[in-house]
C-alpha cells in the first residue's frame, strides 16, 4: 500500500517535470508490479498532448545519429524531447546499439531532453508493454515530442507504427536490402522516409530506387498525405530542417484531420488489444498452473492432440457461451 | 467437408511416406484452415517416434552447411532425415538464409531427405505453430530424425529447445559475439555445442573460450548429460562423425531416462501453452470485433486507462470466477 501511495506521489512530480520521478515511474512500469497500476492509470488519463514519433530502420542505417541530430534541431525550436530507445532482446545486436547510444549522452545534461533505453524482453510482438506507459509518462512530464526508436528486425517496425502518430523509416545507402525491406511492408508503415548518409556517393541511387518503389506502391488511399522521401546527412546537417518541417506537418494531419483521428483510434485498438492479450494470457498461465501435469501428460501420451486439449482447457476455464448468457441476463434485470 | 475428407486422405498417404502428401499437409497446417484440424489431430496421435533435433546459431555461423553435412552422414547410416528451416519473418535476413539453403538442394532429389522452409510470420515468440505440426507430419511419414533449423536472433533459440529432444547450438570463430550469446542464455539451452569452421586459425580460441564459459556455468543439475563441445569443419569433414555420435547418445537420454521424460513433458507443457495461447487470443479477437469501437473510443478519449478497460473487457467476456463455480457444481452433480 505504501508503495502504491509512493507511486501516486510520483505522478505529481512527473506532472511537474521532475526527471528523477519520470525515470522512477518508468522503472516501476517496466517491473510490471501492481502498485504502479493506479499511478499509470492516472498518467494515462492525463496524457494525450505529446506528438509521438516512431523511428525505425535496419541496423546500420544511422538511426541513433539521426535521432541525435533531430533532437538538436527540435531543441533549437524550443521543444522538449523524450526519447525511448527500444533494444531488441536479442543478445547479438545489443552491443552495437548501445555503442551508438553513448554518442548521445552529451544531451543527457539538457533538462529538455530525456533518453531511456528499454528492452523488449518477452513482449508479444516486440514492443514492450511498458514502452507504451513510458510514452504517456513523458507526455505528462511535458515533453512535446516523444521519439520511439526501434531497430527494424521483425515485428517491431510494424508495432511502432501502431503506437505512434508519425512513423519515420530510415534507410541507408549501400546496405543492399532496401528492396527487400520495401517488399516486406515497410512501405505501408512509413509516414516519412529518410535516406541517411546522403554525403555518400551511392546515396542518390538509394533515393531514386526508393522513390520509384513508392510510386509503384501508391494506392491513393490517403490523399491528405503522401509520404515524402528526405535525404539526410549527419555530417553536413543536410535534410534535418526538412525532416523537422515534415514531422510538424504530419503532426497536424494526426491531430486535426479525420484520417488522423482514424489513425489514433486504430492506435487505441492496438493498445487495448495488447493490454487485453497480456492480461488474458496471464490468467491462462494461472489456470494452467492450477491444473498441474494432468493435461500435459495426456499430450505426452498422445491420447489427444494439442488443439482438442487446448479447446477443452479453454472451454472449461473461460466459458464464453455462459458469459454471453450472463451478459444478456444482467442486461434484462 | 470435402476438403476435410481430402485432408484425412492425406494422412494415409503421409503414413505411406508420400513426399507430395507431406508437402501438401504441411501447407494446410501453415494456412491454419479448420479443414486440416482433424487430419492434424490424427497425425499428432500417430506421431512420437522421430528424434527431434533443434539446431540454432547466429547468422553466419554456418548452420545450413552443417545441416547439409550432418544430413549426408545420417543418410550414410540409413536414416531418413526431415529438415524444417525456420526463417524469421524479418525481411533483412531472408536473403542470406535462402542463399545458404540453395546449396542444399542437391539433396532434395533423395527421397530419404525432405527439406522445407517455413516462415515465423506472426507466431507468438517466434516458432510458428505450424512448425510443430510439420514435425509431427515428418515423424508420421517415417523420418527418423527431424532437424528444426532456426536463426538465433531472439526468442527462436529458446523456443526451438522447447520443441526438440536435443538442441545443438552452433558458434563460429571470429563473429565476436560468443560471449554475449552465452551470457544471454544460449548456454542453458544447448545439449550439444558445435564450433563450426574449425579449419580457421582462430577456431581454437573460440573452442577454448566456450569450454571455459561452460565450466563457469556448470550447475551439476543434470548429471546424466554434460553438453559436449564439438569442433566441426565443412571443408575437412572434421567433427561430423562425433556430432552424429553425440546426437545418438543424447537421443537415448531423451527417450530412456527420467530427465529425458521430464524434458519431453516440459515440451508438452510448452505445446499445450502455445496452442491454448493462440486459441484464447483468437477468441479475444472475435470478442473485440463484436464490441466494435465503443471500448477503443473510451480509450482514445482517455476516460479510462488501458489496464482497467482490458480488465473490464475480459471480466465480462471470460468470467473465470463463474467458470470455477460451474466446474465445482458439475463435479457435485
The share of residues in extended strands of chain A comes to: 5-15%
Number of beta strands of chain A: 7
N-to-C SSE series of chain A?
HHHEHEHEHEHEHEHEHHHHH
- Output mean pLDDT of chain A: 82
* Oligomerization: homodimer
State the separation between the terminal residues of chain A, measured CA to CA.
37 Å
Residues in helices of chain A, as a percent range = 55-70%
SS-based structural class of chain A?
alpha/beta
Q: Assign an overall shape of chain A.
A: globular
Number of helices, counting only DSSP H or I runs of 4 residues or more of chain A: 14
Q: Largest beta sheet of chain A: what is the strand line-up?
A: 3-2-4-1-5-6-7
Radius of gyration of chain A: 22 Å
Sheet bearing the most strands of chain A, described? 7 strands, parallel
Can you put this structure into words, describing what you see?
Two copies of one chain form a homodimer. Chain A has a seven-stranded parallel sheet, with helices on both faces. Chain A is an alpha/beta fold. In chain A, helix 5 links the parallel strand 2 and strand 3. Chain A has 14 helices and seven strands. Helices cover 58% and strands 12% of the residues of chain A. Chains A and B meet through helix 3, helix 5, helix 8, helix 11 and helix 12 of A and helix 3, helix 5, helix 8, helix 11 and helix 12 of B.
Amino acid at each position: 500500500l505504501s508503495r502504491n501511495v509512493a507511486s501516486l506521489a510520483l505522478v505529481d512530480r512527473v506532472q511537474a517535470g521532475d526527471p528523477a520521478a519520470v525515470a522512477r515511474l518508468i522503472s516501476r512500469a517496466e517491473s510490471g508490479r501492481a502498485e504502479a497500476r493506479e499511478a499509470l492509470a492516472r498518467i494515462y488519463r492525463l496524457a494525450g498532448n505529446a506528438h509521438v514519433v516512431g523511428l525505425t530502420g535496419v541496423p546500420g542505417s544511422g538511426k541513433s545519429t539521426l535521432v541525435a541530430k533531430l533532437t538538436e534541431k527540435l531543441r533549437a525550436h524550443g521543444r522538449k524531447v523524450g526519447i525511448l530507445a527500444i533494444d531488441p532482446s536479442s543478445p547479438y545486436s545489443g552491443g552495437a546499439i548501445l555503442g551508438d547510444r553513448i554518442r548521445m549522452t552529451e544531451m543527457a545534461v539538457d533538462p529538455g531532453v530525456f533518453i531511456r533505453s528499454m528492452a523488449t524482453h518477452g513482449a508479444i510482438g516486440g514492443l514492450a508493454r511498458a514502452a507504451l506507459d513510458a510514452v504517456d509518462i513523458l507526455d505528462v512530464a511535458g515533453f512535446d515530442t516523444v521519439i520511439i526508436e526501434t531497430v527494424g528486425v521483425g515485428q517491431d517496425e510494424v508495432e511502432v507504427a501502431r503506437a505512434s502518430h508519425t512513423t519515420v523509416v530510415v534507410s541507408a545507402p549501400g546496405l543492399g536490402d532496401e528492396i527487400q525491406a520495401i517488399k516486406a511492408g515497410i512501405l505501408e508503415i512509413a509516414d516519412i522516409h529518410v535516406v541517411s548518409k546522403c554525403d555518400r556517393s551511392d546515396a542518390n541511387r538509394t533515393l531514386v530506387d526508393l522513390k520509384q518503389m513508392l510510386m509503384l506502391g501508391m494506392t491513393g488511399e490517403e490523399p491528405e498525405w503522401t509520404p515524402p522521401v528526405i535525404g539526410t546527412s549527419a555530417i553536413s546537417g543536410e535534410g534535418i530542417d526538412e525532416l523537422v518541417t515534415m514531422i510538424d506537418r504530419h503532426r497536424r494531419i494526426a491531430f486535426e484531420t479525420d484520417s488522423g483521428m482514424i489513425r489514433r483510434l486504430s492506435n487505441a485498438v492496438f493498445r487495448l488489444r495488447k493490454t487485453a492479450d497480456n492480461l488474458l494470457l496471464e490468467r491462462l498461465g494461472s489456470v494452467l498452473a492450477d491444473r498441474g501435469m494432468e493435461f500435459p501428460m495426456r499430450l505426452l501420451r498422445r491420447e489427444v492432440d494439442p488443439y482438442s486439449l487446448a479447446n477443452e482447457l479453454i472451454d472449461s476455464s473461460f466459458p464464453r457461451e455462459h458469459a454471453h448468457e450472463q451478459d444478456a441476463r444482467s442486461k434484462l434485470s
